[in-house]
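job 3f2a | input accepted
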Amino acid sequence: MTSDCCDGLDCTSTVACTEINSNLSAVSRSDLARFRPIGYVPGSRGCRELIAMATVPVSQFPTTPIHRLGAVVLSRVESVGDFALFSFGVLRQLAAGRPRRGLMLETMCIVGVGSIPVVVVTGVFIGMVLAVQGYASFHQMGMETRIGSVINSSLVKELGPVLAATMLAGRVGSAMAAELGTMRVTEQIDAIRALGANPLRQLVVPRFLACFLLIPILTIVADTVGIIGGWLFSTWVLEVNSHFYWVHSRSFVTAFDVATGLIKSVFFGGAIALFSCYHGFHCQGGARGVGRAATVAFVASFIAILALDFFLGLLLDTGYRMVYPVSPSLL
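job 3f2a | predicted structure (331 res):
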């Protein structure tokens, strides 16, 4: 047993030792297998010192479906908490003071002015699509002149704010997530923090204010061009009487409908900015992570837009019915 253990081992180095009696025959091979020999030091005759390290088996974490489900749930809860802390941090920096004027104007130009063309094109086609889809139903009932009421009401309450927010999320939100994600993976955000500045104040607050303040203006633009597009198509192509088109629209669409769309748009803009900047700030994994952050930012923003549209619409309509029980009718 002794010769078997000592053959081929270096007997000149030692770090820590476990003394084994010269009677190695009393130690079984299964006991020796628990040690990983590192070196031997010459000792007295019939006695040697074994430098060994015990190998401890590493227990693996269970991978049952229940454990995997729990890991996913914990990850989602942690993400919600991180997003809440991120949002509170942005609001705290916003309350501390306004960002620099030059940076704010540059961000507002990118967010607002750059989004006008896509919002105009989208609004015009949505107005014409509503005219095409609604004319057949109203024509069967002999109510063609009332089609303007449905077009204008749908635009100012729902489609105008939602489509303007969707275009903003696709064009601006993804760009913000990609830009901040690139700054994260290249450690520019860490450099800003090392210089003593707050990254939230320098990078997120201007983008949040730009989206929050400018999306109502973009919503008004979308509503205006959509109403004009629907009116032109209805009167020129579908030959609807223009006078009665506007008379019925004015009697059905109220100021509350316009206010509802603008209130929704403010919340949409805030959600787009927060989700986009959050995913950009927490980007990982290099170039692939930047692309993933831009995609997730748009998807999360779009889901938030639809959820906010539902809950805000339900809340505002309920409040309006409590104050004004009688609503205008198409008939």
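job 3f2a | DSSP finds eleven helices and three strands in the chain.
job 3f2a | closed
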